[in-house]
Specification:
Length: 733
Amino acid sequence: MGGAPSTPRNSGGDDVSVSEYLIATFVGEKSFPLASDFWNKLLELPLSSRWPTDRVQQACELFAQSNGYTRHLAKLLIHLSWCLQELLQDSDAQSSIYKKAVNATYISSVFIKHLIETGKSDCLEELHLSLDETEPVPHGFVMDQDIQNFVMHRVLSYIGSTEVSPNSYVLHQELLNFILVTMSTQLLSGPSPGPRDANPFIDAAMAQEKSLVCLAVRRLLLNYISRHRTPPNAKSYLYSDGDQQGILERVGSAAATFVLLPLNYLVNNSGGSKNPLAECSLHVLLILINYHKSIMNDESMTDKSDDSATSDPVSKVHVFISGNTFSKALANARDVEFDRSDVEGNAHPTGPHVRIPFASLFDTLGMCLADEGAVLLLYSLLQGNSDFKEYVLVRTDLDTMLIPILETLYNSSRRTSSNQIYMMLIVLLILSQDSSFNSSIHKMILPSVPWYKEHLLHQTSLGSLMVIILIRTVQHNLSKLRDVYLQTTCLATLANMAPHAHHLSAYASQRLVSLFYMLSRKYNKLSDLTGEKLQSIKINLSGEDDGVSEDLTAELQIFTDFLRLVLDILNAILTYALPRNPEIVYAIMHRQEVFLPFKNHPRFHELVENIYTVLDFFNSRMDSQGSDREWSVQKVLQFIINNCRSWRGEGMKVFTQLHFSYEQESHPEEFFIPYVWQLALSRGGYSFNPEAINLFPVPQPVEKEIEDGRGEVLEGKEEKVQELNERRIVFDP
């Protein structure tokens, strides 16, 4: 039992027979102890070996049957840990150790993935992450230690402590893929984390000491920032040799679970990624920081009722969410160039923390915000890391970050997912909570906006462009999507910006008044329909209302709130920023008839009063110029500018200045965990058996896209998004 199998002679340099023999032995019924030389032979296979897909699948099926007895997965993970430890202790370790680590990582990933996909038990017992009690234990190995903790400690240690270089690139890539595979146990559970969910490897990662977690988070962020290209010496391993077509390209359209061993089947070759290490690092980081573990605490009490002579124990169960060390590490990350405590004397949390170059991270995010993963990372930083948020707000080149967001929102009708739109709008809402942000964006002038096609935008402020895009998003949503949450987010952001408006452009001002007119028409139509429906019920005296009138009443209330919010936005500009915004005065004067139906309306008259106070002020002065005077656009605008100097706001009612803030849901994981995994499956080239996925619904068209390894996973899958995003915007009086 302790010996190593003899390997067939390899004549002619063909390693296929050797590879197949050793893999067949690994998945067979004979168990080899940890100290057997078999493991050296298995892990010293050439990195260029190839093994056909059908043989890999067959090997996985055999392994699933034998692993419970042989415990070869546990032993392979221990050997992987030992290889990584040796590499960490000796940076000049022989290349044979490096090769063994790569092989151990990849082979483990293949078989773990199969066991997770095909597992039948709730606790993933098929993994058998322990050694048999009769196993001869090598010197220095503790028998009862958790193997998943042992290997995750070594994996995170190597990733966190070793720089990415041409000589270490392949192992870094494989270790990230390994983490992704081991965390895919989440795909088997429902969207709401439960106390019975089995995620042994990700729980092991969460259990690591804070210093190691900080090192790992730092490396993942640096990988994302650095965007390492695949070095030439790694391409022969990750793709193919010579001028042949890449193997992933050859099998990319096949519904195959595995490609050839030990070829990396997780690299995003189908998407043409130039930075697979950066993308994989981002996906791993997002999955880690959004993980939530439900813990069930069973407390026993005694039920002592008056009519009972005996006392029966009653079990009271409490379910709570454990902390996330990776999320805390990201939230406490600091800038390498500037430690706030040195200047302000504010103490940060004690202990180790992540230090990264905020400037490089800001620039990288600005380049990548068309990608949903980048938006999620930006959201996580702005929502959780006050240092990074402050850094962003003091940058003088906010256009680096805002222009990609606004352009994506402009093109949102072209296959942009609703999830991505939501996250971008939330980012804008978070930024708009800061008054300095709202002021600075109006001072930044853009020479042109070539991607905006409906109107020539020349010398437009960034603030005006943001107003234009938000209004356009609202108008598009009114006609197509009819999403209340999206409308509310856009209008809340505009309300935060309104008191700080500065030289709002003519086009932005016109769009704002046009938005009021569009909403008013919808409101009037709903009001008429609601009245007719109620009158019809009274006449028929049937008492039967099929719910249509209730739906109409609810929709009418929604548009009442929208209309009041737009009037609040106009009021805020006129009350706090009128002298700085003559174009908004011109737009209101030009379309003043649209406000007339609401002048005496019981729900809107107090908000319309201020608008008419402004109209009366400028109309009266214009009338005093003489009715026979010819008024061109430029003359009217100059007249308004001149009279703005004498505007004192007399007669204006001062309403409470609106301020909306974003508040994360109490269970954000129900939205973010499925969303992040959708991105990992669609962007990372990583495939998973669709029939085994319970984390989110996978309809037939999406299933084909996952198998093909291309396309946008879960397009049109946002039914749950609106439900999960409700009540996220809070009005701060």
